[in-house]
Design a protein that fits this description.
heterodimer, A: alpha+beta, Glutaredoxin, six-stranded mixed beta sheet, two-stranded antiparallel sheet, 4 helices, 10 strands, globular, B: 196 residues, mainly beta, 2 domains, twelve-stranded mixed beta sheet
């Protein structure tokens, strides 16, 4: 799009979220989908990728984030087809492939859940610099976790961290800027 | 000791809170007056717009949200439901891009204030669900309230289940002091508690 910048880092943005264009973290992963297929970023060629890290026992933030993601996809119109939403579980102990599949399908059939074993999950947490901590509560445990959605351009460069407080429209605005500056 | 409460005509025994002990120095009349002034006799909590989020098969937890308004200072101290092995009262906080959820001892319900249990804040957490919560079903939730004197009242609320991808109802967003729900037509339960 901007030949003058070819070879340089991506253009800076003026977005509602946190512009992390040029970030050297959160580059890739190798995790399984519920059907057992292993995915990396390369699996989503030419797609905008939006990743949310969460767990299905979450009463609140995760469903809210995925609901917003489905709104974003719809509001993007035709460009929505270029958006791949990924839900990476930080609680593989409880989030079985069956639960993950049913969970993401409830929001949008195109959304894909990904999981790894404990070691892979820990690596994901580290590589993406997210926060995920098991916390005991009463009779069970919950997860404290990062609520940001990671937005990648179609060349799979991390560009924006969408804040949980952003409206779907504000996310769409940010995504359009990323599309225009890739 | 019993003679402190020996005036059934003005103070029917069924209203006597088992957990309440009036100071010994109080006269019968003083004790009754104190109890009446505190509104114990007619303590009630109005529960409005309750809803639970649906789950997918084998998902073991979900949240319940609602508005509560007590007519005197009360506290929500306990919740339970037959659909879950454990039920806890949680508060979610969201700070600097990190979501945290903690069990709380209870939720204070200041007199005549609307207290919202809503996404982004307080909620009742159903844990180790025994069944899938399906949209358009409903579940029974027992809420136990405690007044300033320690008297507990439990009331049952019928909670409709909304789809997993449902957001909060418009009127239920945010939390704090959204007044004006008194005449809402969908009041789930008009707080006729039964004493334990």
């Amino acid at each position: 799009m901007l030949p003058a910048l070819a070879g340089c880092g991506p253009a800076k943005l003026d977005v509602h979220g946190i512009d992390v264009s040029g970030a050297d973290f959160g580059k890739d992963f190798s995790l399984k989908a519920p059907d057992g297929t292993v995915h990396t970023m390369a699996s989503f060629e030419d797609k905008l990728v939006m990743i949310f890290f969460g767990f299905t026992q979450c009463p609140d933030v995760c469903p809210t984030a995925l609901l917003r993601a489905s709104d974003i996809k719809r509001m993007l119109g035709e460009d929505g087809e270029r958006l791949q939403v990924l839900f990476i579980t930080i609680d593989p102990e409880r989030d079985t492939p069956e639960i993950l599949s049913a969970y993401t399908q409830a929001f949008d059939p195109s959304f894909l859940a990904l999981y790894g074993d404990a070691e892979q999950t820990a690596k994901t947490v580290k590589d993406f610099r997210i926060y995920a901590q098991k916390v005991k509560t009463g009779n069970t445990y919950t997860m404290d976790h990062t609520s940001l959605s990671y937005l990648y351009d179609t060349r799979h460069r991390l560009r924006v961290l969408l804040r949980h407080e952003q409206s779907a429209q504000e996310c769409v605005d940010d995504i359009r800027q990323v599309l225009a500056n890739t | 000791m019993n003679q402190r409460f020996s005036s059934p005509r003005s103070f029917p025994a069924r209203f006597l809170p088992a957990g309440v002990r009036a100071p010994r120095s109080l006269t019968i009349g003083g004790a009754i007056a104190a109890l009446l002034m505190s509104g114990l006799v007619h303590a009630q909590v109005v529960v409005q717009e309750p809803w639970a989020r649906a789950t997918v098969p084998t998902q073991r937890a979900s949240g319940v949200f609602m508005h509560l308004k007590a007519d005197q200072d009360m506290k929500l101290v306990k919740a339970s439901s037959d659909v879950a092995t454990h039920t806890e009262i949680h508060e979610m906080t969201h700070d600097n891009g990190v979501m945290k959820m903690r069990e709380v001892d209870g939720i204070a319900l200041p007199a005549n204030q609307d207290v919202a249990l809503a996404p982004g804040g307080l909620h009742v957490m159903l844990l180790d669900l025994k069944q899938q919560l399906k949209a358009d079903d409903s579940l029974a939730l027992d809420l136990t309230f405690e007044d300033a004197q320690g008297k507990r009242v439990t009331q049952q609320v019928t909670v409709p289940v909304r789809p997993l991808n449902a957001g909060a109802p418009q009127s239920g967003q945010g939390h704090g002091h959204a007044h004006g729900h008194d005449s809402a037509p969908d009041a789930a339960h008009a707080g006729k508690g039964h004493a334990h």
